[in-house]
């Protein structure tokens, strides 16, 4: 099939960018969306033009590296799917496809579709861990964790850090990302001891990094490749309010 | 602790929920307008008089004014911060496919409500407080006649109803959004509160919508 | 030359504790003065960097991703082995050691494998303390499942995302040290050379991939934890940017390369669906528990799967290996699939796959049970192929997966260059000629959390009088010049073909001739073909743009340039080993019924290849494997 692409091209962080038109023939339905971009880049490279820079790595939906806005949707038209898991059978012959980088003030564009998501690392650095030295751990089965709690913690811990939640949010809020880590750790007995400090620090860092507020539109949950529930955001709020009240 | 996003949201939630509570009281008072005309007039005016004299009510009314102002001020702050966080949009934007329109447009709905409030205050509250209203047979200011006569105007009723629908959608998202901000995360209670929110929103919206329509048709 | 692996004396179960008891220490005041460079921030790199930082060393950690959480450890699905014996089914350290050694076809070092098993239990404690949400039973205790090649349940798992959860645990520990300013993190930096001063590893040359700047960094020791190079086959289950460049540059600086040709080919990957495909997706091996593998009995059969009657189907694994059937080990299942596909019995539009059929299991157990077990995999399969595997069989094919080979290291995980360590998949150490499922995460973690934090200080104890490394030293200048020259050379070719073009061809050559089965003739051909390909690479490569900007074509070209050299060494290594063992199957050395024939008398050694200069053949050094505690036996799955 044939597709018409409108791709955001931007040479560097401080350069002006624009949408550039490309068209591709002979795209098969079995192709993944990223294979399609590879095909375009192969063509551009052979012509001596700069290929489109885009983020990708594992191509099986787990590393969180890929992520672009496709026709105005984070990771494309399917819900809960990463860009690399999207296939061309989701498009029709003759479709025009807009491909833009994830946009947020906290995700500056590096080049073309590549954005800088290091703000996420900063949030984790401010408290997204359990303070434990290698060697300190007690026997693993000494502290039982109820099945349901472990499952709930896993649901939150499954976050791949792709940034789709920020990209789809009208406020560019990192609430889902931050909340997932806070609840993952707050649920576990090992993580409880520093949960108060953690939530205050992480929420502050989230603000400092320039992310917006959560308006509970729940768009993030719909686009999240791991289907992380917005209830984790409520849980983060609970932890935050508790910390605010109990803080000495 | 410096004020951060979640503290702002907490203020929004507290003030919003107080306003939700006030709406119930307001609606209960207004339901008196549905009584037979003569009884309604005396009872409604007496009720209005009661509300303007009581010290407790006075305190609550100041909390009310403060809530409205804070709700608006924090909404502005939050909106500005959100704009700054998301300074460039998308050339093609279909993000709306995955969320409810009213949840994305709380600012617009809120602005409609605010404009309505200004009109509402000018038409009733201001006139009652500072204008010259005739007295009814009990010697209370006759707010009832003022209200009923304003609901004789078809366009006014339409405007009023439209604003009530804006309020309804604002409440529909606002109520449960506030419970989220307050930290209700347990799925069972989240479900209950969501259902309660629907019920509450339905009652408030229908109540405030029906009264002017009823008054309009009864007097035509 | 025979190599000394520096294995501690004494009984097998005392070696590691003896080593720990006698290893040299560095006092806390001196630790602050010592710098360590860690290249790679996957499971092995992050855990080593965090653990050493906790001790008080100053760490500079580099990774080519935009954040360490993306390293390919993230993609490991099944689980991590540990002999906790929580199932009371007779598991213990020795049994785990033996299973691993046997699974590796007795081509690994006893002492290392024993240490791996010995530290495995601690790893689970460590991960749980970090908050890794392993699967649990209803009582709240940890759950286990069984995995290929063993008879006990010792695999810990976090749904199908065990690698992700372990990596996030290590990543979070690393981020904690970054916040404590004990680790300096350099993301989007790729190592292009190791710098040696007076024969010791003292630093690296890296390229900032966002700006193109070439930087020098000095330290008292350098740790390489850069993962495997299975991406050399182009189509593989590895991530796009996985590469062998760091270890290859180290090799060219004098580190030996151990058993480079041993690559595990995973049997249950999704087949290639088009020429432009760049990556094969792995489907969990667990599917083989209920799926039956077959091909049509007639060659080039173009009928759809469901229209082929039962009598015309060849369940070749059940036919050839009645004892293990569809659960035959990875190397055997992969080889059998390739044999059928090559003989013309492959299925699918390009006849490059075999069927994995659930119809019998669905009929016997019902759709509900199958969904409970494999629902997410069926969904994933449908997402990728658009095919509903409840209605028709899945199509699978073998794909390159894991490098058992890598930099040769001694018991301390130090390469032949003093001060240069290799951890995780980047070294050759623990898996022998075939890795057991759920052992890769284990090795990465054990190396990073428990081994390097003891052995690296043991080396650094001798470096406490060494001054801060001067990056203006001539050795740095020369290394930087060489790196710049290489980049300039590649950019100046200005040919017509992008790097992927050469990579695809290299992958094809290797998959056909140095993949599942190898022959002397094929390997010799492959060496010649790779040399030709390399020559044409330096004539016909094209890279748009410059070196001073984000340029993924340049990044690819640098990696492919190294692959084109690694590929040749792989073939040389495979050609040298005149036996079949584990993943290394030489067609000349098989039993009459097609099974691998190992030659312990002549090949019970590790091939450690030494670089001898450009254009010269590599020198073979041997580390003889001594089996003091177990007797090598023949693997039999019939």
UniProtKB/TrEMBL annotation, chain A:
Q: What cofactor requirement does the entry state?
A: [2Fe-2S] cluster; [3Fe-4S] cluster
Signal peptide boundaries: none
Which positions fall inside the 4Fe-4S ferredoxin-type domain?
150-179
Output the InterPro entries linked to this UniProt entry. 2Fe-2S_ferredoxin-like_sf, 2Fe2S_fd_BS, 4Fe4S_Fe-S-bd, Beta-grasp_dom_sf, Helical_ferredxn, SDH/FRD_Iron-Sulfur, Succ_DH/fum_Rdtase_N
Q: Name one GO molecular function term.
A: electron transfer activity
- PROSITE patterns found in the cross-reference section: 2FE2S_FER_1, 4FE4S_FER_2
GO BP, one example?
Answer: aerobic respiration
Family (UniProt): Belongs to the succinate dehydrogenase/fumarate reductase iron-sulfur protein family.
Q: Record's PANTHER family?
A: SUCCINATE DEHYDROGENASE, SUCCINATE DEHYDROGENASE IRON-SULFUR PROTEIN
Q: Under what name is this protein listed? A: Succinate dehydrogenase / fumarate reductase iron-sulfur subunit
Say which species the protein is native to.
Answer: Chitinophaga skermanii
From TrEMBL, chain B:
Q: Which Gene3D superfamilies match?
A: Fumarate reductase/succinate dehydrogenase, transmembrane subunit
- Spans traversing the lipid bilayer: 12-35, 55-80, 101-121, 154-176, 197-217
Query: What keywords appear on the UniProt entry?
Result: Membrane, Transmembrane, Transmembrane helix
Which Gene Ontology cellular component terms are annotated? Answer: membrane
Give yes or no: UniProt keyword Secreted.
Answer: no
Q: Among its keywords, does the record have Acetylation?
A: no
Q: What superkingdom heads the lineage?
A: Bacteria
Protein's name in the database: Succinate dehydrogenase / fumarate reductase cytochrome b subunit
UniProtKB/TrEMBL annotation, chain C:
UniProt catalytic activity: a quinone + succinate = fumarate + a quinol
A Gene Ontology molecular function term for this protein is: succinate dehydrogenase (quinone) activity
The Fumarate reductase/succinate dehydrogenase flavoprotein-like C-terminal domain covers 503-637
**Keywords noted in UniProt:** Cell membrane, Electron transport, FAD, Flavoprotein, Membrane, Oxidoreductase, Transport
The subcellular localization recorded is:
Cell membrane
Q: Which residues form the FAD-dependent oxidoreductase 2 FAD-binding domain?
A: 35-441
Main localization is: membrane
Signal sequence extent: none
User: What family, per the record?
Assistant: Belongs to the FAD-dependent oxidoreductase 2 family. FRD/SDH subfamily.
Name this polypeptide is given: succinate dehydrogenase
Where does this protein come from, organism-wise?
Chitinophaga skermanii
Q: Species lineage, top-down?
A: Bacteria, Pseudomonadati, Bacteroidota, Chitinophagia, Chitinophagales
């Amino acid at each position: 099939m044939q597709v018409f692409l409108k791709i955001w091209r931007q040479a560097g962080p401080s350069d002006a960018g624009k949408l550039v038109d490309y068209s591709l023939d002979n795209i098969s339905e079995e192709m993944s969306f990223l294979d399609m971009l590879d095909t375009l880049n192969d063509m551009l490279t052979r012509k001596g033009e700069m290929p489109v820079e885009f983020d990708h790595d594992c191509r099986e939906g787990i590393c969180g590296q890929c992520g672009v806005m496709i026709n105005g949707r984070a990771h494309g038209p399917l819900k809960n799917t990463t860009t690399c898991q999207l296939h061309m059978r989701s498009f029709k012959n003759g479709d025009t496809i807009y491909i833009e980088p994830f946009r947020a003030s906290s995700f500056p564009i590096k080049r073309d579709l590549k954005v800088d998501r290091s703000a996420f690392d900063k949030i984790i650095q401010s408290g997204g861990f359990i303070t434990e030295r290698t060697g300190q751990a007690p026997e693993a089965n000494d502290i039982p964790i109820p099945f349901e709690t472990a499952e709930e913690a896993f649901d939150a811990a499954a976050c791949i850090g792709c940034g789709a939640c920020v990209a789809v949010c009208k406020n560019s809020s990192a609430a889902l990302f931050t909340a997932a880590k806070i609840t993952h750790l707050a649920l576990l007995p090992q993580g409880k001891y520093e949960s108060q400090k953690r939530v205050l620090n992480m929420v502050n860092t989230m603000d400092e990094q320039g992310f917006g507020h959560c308006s509970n539109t729940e768009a993030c949950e719909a686009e999240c490749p791991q289907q992380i529930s917005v209830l984790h955001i409520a849980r983060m709020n609970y932890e935050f309010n508790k910390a605010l009240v109990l803080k000495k | 602790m410096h004020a951060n996003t979640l503290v702002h949201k907490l203020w929004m939630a507290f003030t919003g929920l107080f306003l939700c509570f006030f709406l119930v009281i307001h609606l209960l008072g207004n339901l008196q307008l549905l009584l037979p005309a003569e009884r309604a007039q005396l009872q409604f005016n007496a009720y209005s008089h009661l509300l303007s004299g009581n010290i407790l009510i006075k305190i609550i009314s100041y909390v009310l004014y403060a809530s409205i102002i804070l709700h608006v001020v924090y909404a502005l702050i939050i909106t500005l911060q959100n704009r700054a966080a998301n300074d460039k949009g998308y050339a093609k934007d279909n993000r709306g496919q995955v969320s409810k329109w009213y949840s994305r447009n709380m600012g617009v709905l809120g602005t409609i409500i605010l404009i309505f409030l200004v009109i509402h205050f000018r038409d009733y509250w201001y006139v009652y407080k500072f204008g010259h209203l005739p007295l009814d047979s009990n010697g209370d200011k006759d707010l009832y006649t003022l209200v009923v006569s304003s609901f004789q105007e078809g366009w006014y009723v339409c405007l009023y109803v439209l604003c009530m629908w804006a309020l309804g959608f604002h409440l529909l998202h606002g109520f449960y959004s506030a419970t989220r901000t307050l930290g209700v995360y347990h799925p069972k209670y989240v479900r209950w509160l969501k259902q309660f929110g629907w019920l509450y929103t339905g009652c408030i919206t229908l109540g405030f919508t029906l009264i002017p329509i009823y008054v309009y048709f009864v007097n035509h | 030359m025979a190599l000394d692996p520096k294995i501690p004396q004494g009984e097998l179960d005392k070696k590691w504790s003896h080593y720990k008891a006698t290893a040299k220490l560095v006092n806390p005041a001196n630790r602050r003065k010592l710098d360590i460079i860690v290249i790679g921030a996957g499971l092995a790199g992050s855990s080593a960097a965090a653990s050493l930082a906790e001790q008080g060393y100053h760490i500079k950690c580099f990774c080519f991703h935009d954040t360490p959480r993306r390293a390919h450890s993230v993609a490991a699905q099944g689980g991590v082995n540990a002999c906790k014996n929580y199932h009371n089914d007779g598991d213990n350290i020795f049994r785990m050691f033996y299973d691993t050694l046997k699974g590796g076809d007795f081509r690994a070092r006893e002492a290392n494998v024993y240490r791996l098993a010995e530290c495995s239990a601690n790893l689970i404690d460590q991960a749980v303390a970090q908050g890794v949400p392993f699967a649990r039973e209803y009582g709240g205790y940890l759950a286990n499942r069984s995995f290929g090649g063993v008879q006990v349940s010792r695999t810990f798992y976090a749904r199908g995302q065990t690698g992700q959860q372990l990596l996030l645990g290590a990543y979070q520990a690393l981020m904690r040290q970054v916040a404590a300013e004990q680790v300096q993190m350099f993301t989007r930096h790729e190592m292009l050379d190791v710098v040696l001063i007076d024969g010791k590893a003292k630093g690296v040359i890296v390229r900032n991939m966002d700006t193109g700047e070439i930087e020098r960094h000095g330290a008292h020791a350098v740790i390489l934890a850069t993962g495997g190079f299975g991406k050399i086959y182009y189509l593989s289950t590895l991530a796009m940017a996985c590469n062998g460049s760091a270890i290859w540059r180290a090799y060219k600086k004098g580190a030996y390369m151990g058993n480079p040709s041993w690559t595990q080919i995973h049997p249950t990957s999704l087949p290639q669906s088009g020429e432009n495909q760049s990556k094969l997706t792995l489907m969990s091996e667990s599917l083989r528990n209920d799926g039956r593998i077959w091909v049509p009995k007639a060659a080039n059969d173009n009928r759809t799967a469901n229209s082929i009657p039962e009598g015309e189907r060849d369940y070749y694994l059940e036919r050839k290996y009645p004892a293990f059937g569809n659960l035959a080990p990875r190397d055997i299942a992969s080889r059998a699939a390739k044999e059928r596909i090559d003989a013309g019995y492959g299925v699918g539009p390009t006849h490059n796959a075999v069927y994995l059929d659930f119809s019998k299991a669905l009929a016997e157990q019902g759709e509900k049970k199958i969904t409970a077990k494999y629902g997410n995999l069926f969904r994933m399969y449908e997402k990728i192929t658009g095919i509903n595997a409840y209605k028709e069989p899945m199509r699978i094919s073998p794909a390159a997966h894991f490098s058992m080979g890598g930099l040769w290291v001694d018991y301390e995980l130090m390469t032949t260059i003093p001060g240069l360590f290799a951890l995780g998949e980047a070294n050759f150490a623990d898996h022998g000629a075939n890795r057991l499922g759920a052992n890769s995460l284990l090795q990465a973690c054990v190396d990073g959390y428990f081994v390097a934090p003891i052995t690296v200080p043991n080396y650094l104890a001798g470096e406490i009088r060494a001054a801060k490394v001067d990056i203006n030293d001539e050795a740095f200048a020369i290394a930087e010049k060489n790196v710049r020259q290489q980049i300039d050379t590649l950019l100046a070719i200005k040919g017509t073909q992008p790097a992927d073009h050469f990579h695809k061809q290299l992958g094809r050559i290797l998959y056909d001739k140095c993949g599942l089965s190898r022959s002397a003739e094929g390997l010799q051909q492959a060496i010649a073909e790779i040399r030709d390909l390399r020559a044409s690479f330096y004539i016909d490569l094209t890279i748009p743009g410059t070196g001073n900007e984000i340029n993924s074509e340049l990044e690819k070209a640098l990696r492919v340039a190294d692959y084109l050299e690694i590929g040749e060494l792989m073939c040389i290594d495979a050609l040298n080993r005149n036996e079949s063992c584990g993943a290394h199957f030489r067609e000349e050395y098989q039993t009459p019924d097609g099974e691998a024939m190992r030659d312990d008398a002549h090949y019970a050694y590790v091939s450690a290849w030494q670089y001898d200069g450009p254009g010269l053949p590599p020198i073979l050094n041997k580390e003889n494997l001594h089996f003091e505690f177990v007797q090598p036996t023949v693997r039999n799955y019939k």
